[in-house]
Design a protein that fits this description.
The chain is α+β, with helices and mostly antiparallel strands. The chain folds into 3 domains: 62 residues; 119 residues, Lipocalin (Beta Barrel), CATH 2.40.128; 81 residues. It has 6 helices and 13 strands. The strands form 2 sheets. An 8-stranded antiparallel β-barrel has the order 1-2-3-4-5-6-7-8. It has a 5-stranded mixed sheet with strand order 9-10-11-12-13, with helices on one face. Strand 6 and strand 7 form a beta hairpin. The radius of gyration is 34 Å and the shape is elongated.
C-alpha cells in the first residue's frame, strides 16, 4: 500500500489526468447509453402509434365523399348563382307526398332516403338554365353529374305575391332519384313530434317522463320523416331484463302511415329508432 501511495505521489499529475479521463469516459458512456435507450423507446412508441394513425386516416377517408375528376372540374367552375342554388337546396329537407321518401342536399353530395333506408350520392352541377313561367314561379333546368350518370332535374320556385320571397319549391327528375318522376317538395321538419297513447305504466318504464323520448324522436323524424307530426303508441312492449332494454313500436302519421321500432336502454336511458 505504501508503495502505491509513493507511486501516486510521484506521478500525481499523471494520476489526476488519468482519473479525469476515466470520469469523462464513464460519463460519456452513461450519457450515450441513456440517449440510445431514449431513442429506442421513442422508436418503439412511434411504431406502436403509427398503425393507429393509419387506421384513423383510413377510417376518416372512408367517410369522405369521392368525387370524379369531372365532378371536381365542374365544382371549380361554379358561379355565384349556382352556389346560391345549392345553398337553397341544402337549407331544408325535400319530401315526396307520402312523407316516407326524402332528399337532403349538401355541397358535394345528397342523401336519398327511401322507406328509412339511406343512400349517399356525390354530385356536381354542370349546367343550369334559369327560366320563369312569366308569372309567379321560377322554373330552372339543372343538369346533375352523379355517381349514376348525368341527369336533368326541374327545380321550381313558387314566389309570393310580391314576387320575392319563396313560398314553396319543388324538385323532380325522371332518372336521378329512385322514385322516378316523384315530386319532392321542400319541407321544414316538424320541430316537435306529439307522442300519443302512452299509458302511465309505459311512461313509468320510460323513467316517468317522455320529454327525452319526444326530443330524440323529433330529431330522428326530422331526417327520416320530416312531415310526421304525431307518433301513436301501438300499445305493445317487450322487456328484456337480461339485456336491460324495452322494445316497443309507434305509428307515424305520414300520408302513408309508418310503423317504427323503438328500443329504450334501462342502463343509460337512451333511445334507438329504426324501421
Amino acid at each position: 500500500m505504501d508503495k502505491i501511495k509513493a507511486i501516486v505521489s510521484q506521478h500525481k499529475k499523471t494520476s489526476l489526468l488519468a482519473l479525469f479521463v476515466l470520469i469523462v469516459f464513464v460519463g460519456f458512456s452513461v450519457t450515450s447509453a441513456m440517449n440510445v435507450a431514449q431513442r429506442r423507446a421513442e422508436e418503439e412508441s412511434i411504431e406502436q402509434v403509427e398503425p393507429d394513425n393509419e387506421k384513423t386516416s383510413s377510417s376518416e377517408s372512408d367517410k369522405d365523399i369521392k368525387l370524379s375528376d369531372s365532378q371536381k372540374e365542374a365544382i371549380k367552375g361554379y358561379d355565384d348563382k349556382v352556389k346560391r342554388l345549392i345553398e337553397t337546396m341544402s337549407s331544408s329537407i325535400w319530401s315526396d307526398k307520402t312523407g316516407t321518401n326524402t332528399l337532403r342536399f349538401y355541397d358535394t353530395y345528397y342523401v336519398e332516403t327511401i322507406n328509412g333506408v339511406e343512400k349517399t350520392h356525390p354530385y356536381a352541377i354542370t349546367k343550369v338554365e334559369y327560366g320563369t313561367n312569366g308569372a309567379d314561379a321560377e322554373i330552372d333546368t339543372v343538369v346533375f353529374l352523379t355517381d349514376t350518370g348525368t341527369h336533368i332535374a326541374t327545380y321550381t320556385i313558387a314566389l309570393d305575391v310580391e314576387g320575392s320571397s319563396i313560398s314553396t319549391s319543388t324538385l323532380s327528375s325522371s332518372s336521378m332519384f329512385s322514385k322516378k318522376d316523384s315530386l319532392y317538395e321542400c319541407a321544414d321538419p316538424v320541430k316537435s313530434i306529439t307522442v300519443k297513447g302512452l299509458n302511465s305504466e309505459m311512461t313509468s318504464l320510460f323513467g316517468g317522463d317522455v320529454t327525452k323520448l319526444t326530443e330524440d324522436l323529433s330529431s330522428w323524424c326530422a331526417s327520416h320523416f320530416p312531415t310526421a307530426s304525431e307518433a301513436a303508441w301501438e300499445k305493445t312492449a317487450v322487456i328484456d331484463y337480461e339485456k336491460g332494454i324495452i322494445s316497443t313500436t309507434f305509428t307515424l302519421n305520414t300520408e302513408t302511415p309508418v310503423s317504427i321500432a323503438v328500443t329504450y336502454s334501462l342502463s343509460d336511458k337512451s333511445y334507438n329508432f329504426e324501421l
